TrEMBL record:
One of its GO terms (cellular component) is membrane. Its EC number is 2.3.2.27. Gene3D superfamilies: Zinc/RING finger domain, C3HC4 (zinc finger) (3.30.40.10). It catalyses: S-ubiquitinyl-[E2 ubiquitin-conjugating enzyme]-L-cysteine + [acceptor protein]-L-lysine = [E2 ubiquitin-conjugating enzyme]-L-cysteine + N(6)-ubiquitinyl-[acceptor protein]-L-lysine. It comes from Lupinus luteus (European yellow lupine). One of its GO terms (molecular function) is polysaccharide binding. It is found in: Membrane. It holds the Pfam family zf-RING_2. Its main location: membrane. Pathway: Protein modification; protein ubiquitination. This is RING-type E3 ubiquitin transferase. CDD domains: RING-H2_EL5-like. The chain crosses the membrane at residues 222-243.
Length: 362
């Protein structure tokens, strides 16, 4: 379809196919004279009136306004229909003084009133910053927002001109200008990743069309998206579900273990018939230690109590069973040994010579 706008202008080398280096004007509907990038003669009606591009010898993309001259294109946002340009001579304030959008489809997004001052160099400082490309050896030019202009300027300074300046949303005069356009409105096509083109060769009405001549980079992106959606995303979801299930099972097991341990050592409000344990004198004969700053526990022990699973802290008192050297919080092991005659870790009983079993009667 000849009316579809698929012309592409490149920043960089002609064979640079990286998407980040591409400025594609298919959604801007560019009327371009870059025949060198097209095969054969280009239809003069293939672009929308007012969008004129050219290319420099060093591969800079140029936008030309009828009454304001040429600007280098830095960036284009098709969804917002904005184009960002810079001055080829790095003197944007000079271009602003004569900026005229007449005869072009572009307008500025924001405006702010600025006053351009002319002052001798002895007044240069924090209040007035010289614009070097507009200044000479004796006087400098500075631009400040008119609202910030002091009621009384230094006698040596004067306002050379005041005008409404197109600026960024912040209102600050920057090194770039951002223009926008209303017609053609191709934002909907861009959002749907379709081509924006004329309804017919004799009409200026634009419609969205499928791109039947997608480039290599676009085909690669589409393929990558398809693979991601159909394979990678479900696989990642499965991994997440499996990990969550494993974590849930571990947490359930830990909770069950802690619950059983707490139940085993918890306070007994009723007398257990036939339960047996060690005599109080035997339990008290087992060694007790107060942990120091290092919290180091002797013997084959971990950093936490085997019964309550809480980590040991400085100045806590622990009790160790003589034969196996397993240690526990005093409160935990005392309650355990009142109901049991073996170590809760290795299940080995203390020496027979010191064991005196007591039986709690109903």
């Amino acid at each position: 379809m000849a009316a579809v706008f698929d012309y592409k202008s490149w920043i960089g080398k002609s064979n640079d196919w990286q998407p980040k280096a591409m400025i594609a004007f298919h959604a801007v509907a560019v009327n371009t004279n870059l025949q060198e990038n097209e095969e054969g003669d280009q239809n003069p009606y293939c672009g929308y009136p007012g969008f004129k591009l050219s290319c420099t010898n060093d591969s800079k993309t140029v936008l030309k306004l009828p009454y304001s001259g040429e600007f280098y294109v830095r960036d284009i946002n098709y969804l917002k229909q904005q184009i960002q340009v810079i001055d080829p001579d790095d003197c944007l304030p000079k271009r602003i003084l004569s900026l005229n959008f007449s005869g072009s489809p572009f307008t500025a997004i924001f405006h702010r009133n600025y006053s351009f001052l002319s002052c001798p160099y002895q007044n240069a400082g924090s209040q007035f910053t010289p614009i070097e490309c507009l200044s000479n050896s004796t006087h400098f030019i500075s631009a400040i927002p008119s609202a910030n202009l002091a009621d009384s300027l230094p006698e040596s300074c004067y306002v050379s001109t005041s005008l409404s300046v197109p600026v960024a949303r912040s209102g600050v005069l920057e090194e770039t200008l951002t223009f926008t356009w209303d017609k053609p409105d191709c934002r909907n096509c861009e959002f749907q990743e379709l081509m924006c083109g004329f309804e017919s060769s004799n009409s200026s009405q634009v419609l969205c069309f499928p791109d039947n001549r997608t480039g290599r980079s676009q085909r690669g992106l589409i393929t990558l998206r398809t693979i991601t959606v159909t394979i990678v995303a479900p696989a990642a979801l499965c991994v997440i579900v499996i990990v969550c299930c494993m974590c849930y099972k571990v947490r359930i097991a830990d909770a069950a273990f802690q619950s059983s341990a707490q139940a085993a050592i918890g306070p007994q409000h009723t007398t257990i018939t036939g339960s047996t344990g060690l005599d109080e004198s035997i339990i008290e004969s087992f060694e007790k230690l107060v942990l120091g700053e290092s919290q180091r526990v002797p013997g084959p022990n971990d950093v936490s109590c085997w019964i309550c699973l809480s980590e040991y802290k400085t100045k806590e008192t622990i009790r160790c069973i003589p034969e196996c050297k397993h240690c526990f919080h005093v409160e935990c092991i005392d309650k355990w040994l009142h109901m049991n005659t073996t170590c809760p870790v290795c299940r080995n009983p203390p020496s027979h010579s010191i064991v005196h079993v007591i039986t709690s009667d109903p």
